[in-house]
Amino acid sequence: EFTPGAVLKGGRLPRRPDGLMGCCNGHTQVHPVSPNEAEPTLQSRVHGPAEMVAQEKAQVEEARYKLSDKASLAAFLQDADIRLIRAPYLFHLRRHNIPLPRRQEAEGEVCEKDSVQMSALVTHSEVRKWAAGSKDAIICSVSHAWETREHPDPCCFQLGHLVDTISLYEAAYFSEIWVFYDYTSLYQFERETDAQRESFARAMGNMHVMYAHDCSLTLRIEGLTPPHIWNAMLQDESKKVPVYHVPSGSLQALPLKELMHNRTPYLQRGWCFAEVQWSAVRGIAAQNQRIYGFAGKSSSGKVPLTPEAFAEQMRTSAFTHRNDAETVVELQKKVFFERVTCCKEVFFENLLEEDLEKLVESLEHYKDLRSFKLKNWEGTPKLVASLAQVLGASARLEELYIMRGEPDRIADLRLYANTDPDVGEALGEALGQLLQHNCTLKKITLGNNDIWHKGSEALLEGLRHNDTVTEIDLRYEHGMDLDRKKAEKIVAAKRPVQNAFKRFRNVVFYKILADWYLRQGKVIVLGDKYYSAQYMNDHPIKGIGNAGAQAVAKMLRENRSVQEIYLHDKRIGEIGGQALLEALRHNSRVLVMNLNENPAISDEVKKGIQGLLEANKEAVRRQKEAFFATLKELQRLSEAKPGMGKSILDRLEGTTWFDDESKCRIAHVQSGEIVWDPNVGTRANSTLISDGIILAPRRPSAGAHGVAHRVVKQAGFMFSSPRWRQ
């Protein structure tokens, strides 16, 4: 199984600014504009005068950087003079609500970690050590929208979500976390020296490297700052953002209303969508993370589009200059074929039906594919048949892994809870046909695909005609209980020595992806530094000890998204317990902390932790009551003042509120009216305020993981109706 630490300790590619181009913003004048005003031009926004654009483009040397080699990524970072940002510096900015600085100002900044002072930006010598293997680091490239021409994140909203995510990774791994964020990593307008202009030009000439490299992780911030936060800052002129001021030629702190706004949605921006696609060409889907933003029913960003499909998408994307679209289309085509044609292993997970459709279209280009893994997916009988047909045509495929969730992981199962029951049977029949003609497959793993009688008989028939499969794992394919022994006999009869058939109850330890767990807002399995498992207690994990507990405690001082932590029987002592207690004094978001079977923690410490958790739950209860009052007031307003109420409810159309524990609907907006669940009156004072229950909104489209209410919770959308409205 893919281990995050094994792949993420790599580099990342550069990124462009606001969806238009590159990562910087230039401008010729500063004035307030309407949020609906057209996006600034590439020249004015990114580079400055058009003559400067031509000059900088002329300076770009043709360079080819391998997308799988650490040394190549390090060379790109050095050649283009790109500086990565240390995680402790981002923690400092978030703690003090300071907007991210330009690269020019960040070069003189310092931060502190474990009482040791260091530069805010990673040095090139450190990157070289990382490439040589003498230093550990996880390189994260951030894909985001520029919300104003002058500054991408004037409200520090993106910064908050970025810190919530990287604080979890810092707790999970021994490695340092280095972040590429264009505004701070690349020189910004105005670039005053030839060296700065050349640096920017070199970076923009190979921007895809930061998002397509095997040794990097993409963090996508797909949502804009919510209107209530944006509007509050617009009205408060005391809150200012340090930006480059063209008239004075210097850095000045300006209120938000004096900046040029750009509220174009993330996925409608051409360069943002290109970054999503560059990130998707990696073989491991877990290296491409959406850390904020609701997933549309047709966009998980996990699957690479064919060049033709990408070009079609670019025709409707926001580009001020259509020449930019042509450039991006050509670059995506180059990157797609460079990565896909030589890709040997892929692991896709959390795919919606539309994603699977795109994957089937793209798979024919994977000419050298040896291992295909698919986990957590939606599909139709026709679609899975097409998938099997494409895989069957592969001339080198040796391993096939198709799983719709692991045992006991309820959140995984939600994704496909309402799918067509015939899909599993169609999959079994299609794979049976594949096995009859395929002569390269050696290993097959199937689980939770709902393959029953017809599908299992087809698989058995396929095995009878197949002479190459040496290992088949059906231990989680519960519908095949009656046929498992038959399959074992068939395979064993052909290869009695080589056969490695795995019985249903043989527990195999899975290194769980940080992707899945972190997106649930839980600290459950924490990488190669220590383990903390809610679902893995059957495995021989010896515990995380005081060191692991201290790492969790350190994370809780920065993170504002995690709400449940399970540390059952992890050999935590008094020192670790004290660290967790102290961390909870500074964290009001955690509601559940399971420390059972850790006898070395004193009763006094456990009682203190429980008291703080109860205080957090009480705050949640009061916030829930306020939320109910807000909804009821909104309903009253819509009845008393139909015009005003209707305009608000129109924006909420289709929104549904669920009880996060029971999954029962509380209320929803339909045809401009709030419709309450019949039992909400009694549940509002019982279930909703019981232990460990979080109230969170869910859109009709569940999103990439099928659990949008958890995505919302991870994003920090809690207990504030204006924020819920988003």
UniProtKB/TrEMBL annotation:
InterPro entries: LRR_dom_sf, RanGap
Repeat found in the keyword field: yes
Keywords: GTPase activation, Leucine-rich repeat, Repeat
Highest taxon of the lineage: Eukaryota
Signal peptide, first to last residue: none
Repeat among keywords: yes
PANTHER family linked to this entry: RAN GTPASE-ACTIVATING PROTEIN 1
This protein's name: LRR and CARD domains-containing protein 3 (Nucleotide-binding oligomerization domain protein 3
Provenance organism: Durusdinium trenchii
